[in-house]
Design brief:
This protein is an all-alpha fold and 127 residues long. 76% of the residues lie in helices and 0% in strands. The chain has one domain: Fumarate reductase/succinate dehydrogenase, transmembrane subunit (3 helical TM bundles of succinate and fumarate reductases, Up-down Bundle).
Length: 127
């Protein structure tokens, strides 16, 4: 039977109406950084395979890794590693049933963001 009230139903919130919360954005970035780390790991594996193959092939791979693009990818990978790790710790904390209040969850999200940048800077300066 056809639904005669189809046009009178309210619409679901759309992306133009919905205001993303910090917790949802940090969750999305956790997934993005996980995938980005996979891409960086494949680049590093390619570098190792090139080293095991021949000197000429290694020179090509090493040229890519040590170029400005490679430096950018590796720097972003360090940030992604710290971000993903800190977000994982936050989720482990949430798994204990603590920190789930909105105010605490937002503070933890800000701590993950700030901590990832600080730890990335420390890592880059230390190396």
């Amino acid at each position: 039977m056809a639904d005669v009230n189809r046009g009178n139903r309210p619409l679901s919130p759309h992306l133009t109406i919905y205001r993303p919360q910090l917790t949802s954005m940090t969750s999305i970035f956790t997934r993005i950084t996980g995938n980005a780390l996979l891409a960086a790991a494949l680049l590093i594996v390619w570098w190792f395979l090139a080293a095991a193959t021949s000197a000429e092939y290694f020179a090509v791979a090493d040229g890519v890794i040590t170029s400005w693009f490679g430096d950018l990818v590796m720097t972003l990978s360090v940030w992604a590693l710290w971000y993903h790790g800190l977000a994982g710790l936050r989720h482990l904390y949430w798994d204990t049933g603590r920190g789930l209040e909105v105010e605490t969850a937002e503070k933890l999200g800000l701590a993950v963001i700030a901590g990832s940048f600080v730890l990335t800077l420390i890592t880059i300066v230390a190396v």
